[in-house]
Amino acid sequence: MDWSYIKISLIDYLLLYGISERTLSQMKKYCLVLIGALVILITFLLVYRPTLFNFLIADDFLLMGWTYQAQSQPKMLLEQYYTTHPLVAAGFYRPILSTILWLGYKLWGTNGLYFRLLNMSFELLSGLMLGLVTVALNQESLKQRSSAQLQFSVWALFSAVLFVFYPLHSESVNWITVITNPLIALFSFFSLWSYIKWRNESKQQFLILSILSAIFAFLTKESAATLPATILIYELMFLKGSTKKSGATTSNRTPLQILYGCIIKTFPYWLILGFYFCLRKVVLGEFIAGYPDYMCPQSVMGWLHGLRDIFVPTNFMLISTHSFIFKAWHVVIFTLILLSVIATIRANINQRKVIYFLVIWFLLALAPNYKIFPSAMNTIVGSRLAYLSTAPLCIFLTYGLALYAVIPNRIVPAVRCFSVTAFALAAVILYINNLAWAEAGVWTSKVISELQSYYRKTTGDPLVYIVGLPTGSKNGVYCVGMLRWITLRPFFDRDLVNCVRLEDESYVSPMFVKKAVNSGARMALLYWDAQNETLRPVKVSAKNCRFTTNWRGSDLKRIIHVGSSSPTSKLIVHWLNDGTLELKSQGKKEVLAVLDITLPALPCWCVDFLAVKLQAISANQNLIPEAKLYFTNSLVDEYSTNANVCLGVSKPGNEAQELFFPLQNLSKWSMGGQCKTIRIVLPIGQDIIIKEISMPESRTLIPEINFRILPEDRPGQLRLGPQSPYLGNVQFDAHSINGAQKVELEATQVAIVQNGAVDPQNIRKSFFFRKRVSHPYGQLTLNKIEFPPESAIYKASLIAIDHAGNQVGFPSDTIFIRTDY
Predict the structure, then answer these.
(1) Do the beta carbons of residue 574 and residue 584 sit within 8 Å?
(2) Residue 258 CA to chain centroid, in angstroms?
(3) Which are the contacts of 243, defined by CB distance < 8 A and separation ≥ 6?
(4) pLDDT value at position 9?
(5) Distance (Å, rounded) from C-alpha 658 to C-alpha 651?
(6) Separation CA 645–CA 647 (nearest Å)
(7) Per-residue DSSP letters for 528-557?
(8) pLDDT value at position 589?
(9) Residue 341 and residue 169: Cα distance in Å, rounded?
(10) Which of 213, 299, 664, 809 could form a disulfide with 737 if both were Cys (CB 3.0 to 4.6 A apart)?
(11) Whole-prediction pTM
């Protein structure tokens, strides 16, 4: 049989049964759209594949703890709409976030994978809505030139795809708590799109949808405050407050009348904004809240770096500035901007309006973060601040690309090839950025596992101090946060409030912990073994440590090695006959001398200070060194980037003096076992002689402090209250400090205590307390009435004073005073 006679194509077969060619063409389009959507979805899942597992990060633990409590107390969820629960960060009104977390916990518990998939869903929907907004912004051009429909469709597709794969979004998608970003983007884009549809088609249902979406946006995040202004700018630039039905024009109206008409059209959004601020005042106590001033230093360079990171969203810890990917992205971003600028120059007035609107929208999207932006915006953690601004940016960047990809000319193949390359590169960078979050998730889960393993073998809630546990991963992602957020239900079988990181969240000086351990207090000291990623017990040295406390002459030469911070630095090193070390700087420029000191048998636990005695060779010159100390020990394998600045006091002429480096309150030093090396970086601006290195006793430099604490209190914390009046007695001894005749206590506030939770943000910076005692040893009494009438934590220290009222020695170990009401 000859099959060629009966062979019928699929198209001919469909046409045979009455399906028109137009219908077939539409079916082809639908198939292409479906295939394109599947490709985008699969690529999106592959890009986020590294983070598709169960993990939580930082603030996630705090809010999951709240969500766990709210499951048994649904009233707590309702309260989020008119009050702020103590566990939720103060200054932020985001009840939609609490609602989503509550519902998610109801469905899948604390499994971070499902929350992350939810974030990804909102990201995809936001991209889809941004594409619709792109089409809506060009409605006027479509009416005048229907042939441009393909161009605008491609522009919408490109802007949506670039937004979904924009590398800056890695944090907003992977960090569960930041689900507010893709969610507010979805609500804001939908509100703007619905408003445009209402103004173009005069259908009231679009206005209702727009207003409802705006309300949800305001309940999601504070950034929604710019939505009324964005809609007003659109009205001013495209419609100018006119009424479509009446066909009114703006030629016979003054600018003030036009502005008035636009405000009237957008009045519902301004009404929502006003009600929102009033609601914030009722709930939070102030109209505008957020990060405290001390966290928001302003600088021009901070703004420039933040704006750079928006356009170059690469994780610099994973993508080197010398890598091909980094350089290729610069070429891509430059080309995209160039194409859009050229297209804008050649565009008609309607298209230019769209571009101008995008620029204003971009600036408005950054406005709510102006306070924190220069100090917190970066591509690793902080990119969430610029999330909304990437929406108008993606539309702008794809304008020229979409235009030159569809206009018939000789460069179309090149532009289309470039577009594929640009999107592929964005996806690759996003994938690499996600690797940092995957590494952070694995590391955080390991920390949780180690804590859970330790407490399975421990009963009750003993006092546990952890040393050397960083807050972030190696790639810079903020992971762990406060341990008190983690060591609670539902992550443990009981609430653990006595497990704290010693370095920065315990409000305890390590020196007092050492004293408590030496006196036999019951507590556990653990350190984080970074190499093996496990918790290990700190090895405490004997109480009576015996070792050499000073090195001079041949001993000094044996332990010290001198180098320079730069091969080109001119530093002359010469050992003199008396065993002292002479350092000379050639030229007028300062030279950084590096002194590497090897003390392998030194027990860190027993050493509180290190001193370097030196002398200027030239007379009539003041020696004012600004030396810095670094160290390695059993806990610290590499020199830290955080230096311990010396407390040396300059003396005139060529009189010998000492540089003192306090070590007793560096937990990584005190709990670090055996010392390996010490590095001192010493700026040499003149000729000096190093005569001796020693380890003086702390009592000869700082006042000794002792006071009784309650059994439930932590070492070094003095509690005043809640009974009134309540006195606290502090025993002190400064008589071993040369010249000490008096002591003076100084105290400042560091945190507010609200409902048992410590809040370091709402502090009284203006409060300063000072109290003097006219003898070098004895007892100092503190009364609660001497402090503000509120539950708070204050840090205080004693200084020794001579007859003339000048400070001698150095401030004592820090006492933390807690007042309870």
Answers:
(1) yes
(2) 43
(3) none
(4) 55
(5) 9
(6) 7
(7) EETTTTEEEE--PPPSS-----EE-THHHH
(8) 67
(9) 25
(10) 809
(11) 0.86
